Amino acid sequence: MSNFVFVIDSDRTPLKPTHPAKARKLLDAGLAAVYRRYPFTIILSRKIEDVNPNKLSLKIDPGAKTTGISLLSNNLVIWAAELTHRGEQIKLRLQDRRAVRRNRRSRKTRYRKPRFLNKARSPGWLPPSLDHRVLTTITWTKRLIKFCPIGSIAQELVKFDTQKLVDPEISGVQYQQGTLYQYEVRQYLLEKFNLTCVYCGKTNVLLEVEHIVPRSRGGNNRVSNLCIACVPCNQAKSNQDIKDFLAEKPSLLKKILAQAKVPLKDAAAVNSTRWKLFNSLKQIGLPVTTGTGGQTKFNRTQQGLAKTHWLDSACVGETPQLKVLTNQPLLITCKGHCNRQVIQMDKYGFPRKGYKPKQKVLNWNTGDIVSVIAGKNAGLRNIRIKTVRSKGNFEVRRPDKTIASVSRNHIIPVHRKDGYSYSFAEL
Questions:
Q1: Which one of 18, 93, 194, 365 is least enclosed by Cβ atoms within 10 Å?
Q2: Which of 309, 312, 308, 311 is nearest to 325 (CA)?
Q3: How would residue 286 be classed by pLDDT, with cut points 50, 70 and 90?
Q4: Do 224 and 283 fall within a single domain?
Q5: Residue 200 belongs to a domain with what CATH number?
Q6: Same domain, 244 and 154
Q7: Using DSSP, how many helices (H) and how many strands (E) does the chain show?
Q8: Range with the largest mean pLDDT of 40-49, 165-174, 266-275
Q9: How many domains is the chain built from?
Q10: Residue 196 shares a structural domain with residue 213
Q11: In the predicted model, is pLDDT for residue 232 greater than 60?
Q12: Residues with Cβ < 8 Å from 204, sequence gap 6 or more?
């Protein structure tokens, strides 16, 4: 079943989301019209007096690359989405800009005095690649509040404790005790090795925490000495040193040792942004509750749910027995708002192009989602414009990732550019 449909009345007041079948009946009867495609929202033709609206709970599972979002009505999961960030692209763009600026300092151009007064950073400053994660999550939180009556917000505040990841035997951490013991380390290792046995490459099997250098041979419990292995491989290795166990597979040995020493990059990104996201959510004005990553994993395991970002978000905090009414979350990918640089530079820092107009073709922009109704590509639906050309032929990206050229006279708009691309998970 797909997500429930958002509903607003004629005064733009958010109402409780409705079942897709009921929304279809309202549209067919002329009692409502499509207000927005992503997320799909209908607007009623009259005002509704909802004396006691049923407030929903918005749950968020922040991640370094993908953030899970879900809406719950009591114990019913009625809407879900996965928001993919573009922090890595932002980092690469800033590195390119830095390279151009450093190269410019060594060229024989006009002298520019050193500037120091604009170097100070405000308290709570985050790098743009990390701040982007917070801003996009807040943007979608405020957007959902406009389309449905949300009464509370739950956020996974601590996903990975790097102190515990370095030394799992650290004392004084309360959530290490009881039923949540070792959930944090195991969850981190599962994500680090992509839910795959490092020795045989099997997935969708029972995985165990494995010591690369066995404890009996002087190995420790540091996370750099831990990996994930299936039960047969774990038993076959036993207390052998990994170099002896993989003596005939030197390439696999090199890969495992290199991956085990990968720094806690994603964990550090989540930890760096968690408090700023929490404080930003509090400023919205709704009550905000929190939960740990171990608690989320425990809730999901107890209820037998699959490992996905949107189901993780539904299990954040205190969670009753859930009933999932959707299995097709909205996949949201951050694309940015194109390049704001007026003059394009080459790798040496010299102008590569002339002036870049703000809009090449009136009313059309890169990032618009359209459907093709005529021409040789007729029938393509909900595809994204990749390039807007002044001559009127646009490049669009097909579902199979190939590029096609269509005329602006053969397309109709579905969703105007807002900095994101949209798709749905395959059933």
A1: 194
A2: 311
A3: very high
A4: no
A5: 1.10.30
A6: no
A7: 11, 19
A8: 40-49
A9: 2
A10: yes
A11: yes
A12: 195
Residue 356 within a domain:
no
Quote the mean pLDDT of the chain: 84
Distance linking the first and last C-alpha atoms of the chain? 9
In a domain, 64, yes or no: yes
Q: Are 311 and 304 in contact (CB under 8 A)?
A: no
d(CA 315, CA 53): 24
Q: Give helix 87-106 / helix 128-147 axis angle, nearest 10°.
A: 140
pLDDT digits (tens, 9 = 90+) for 322-340: 999 998 899 999 988 766 6
Q: Which of 284, 317, 334 is the last residue of a domain?
A: 334
Residue ending a domain, among 229, 263, 297, is: 263
pLDDT at 327: 87
Q: What is the mean pLDDT of residues 67-88?
A: 93
Read off the tokens for 210: 């494995």
> What gap in Å lies between CA 412 and CA 378, rounded to an integer?
11
Domain that holds residue 250: 162-263
Alpha-carbon distance 102 to 84, whole Å?
Answer: 31
Residue 149 sits in a domain whose CATH number is 3.30.420.10
More confident residue, 414 or 270: 414
- Answer for the pair 129, 237: CB distance below 8 angstroms, yes or no: no
| 84: in domain | yes
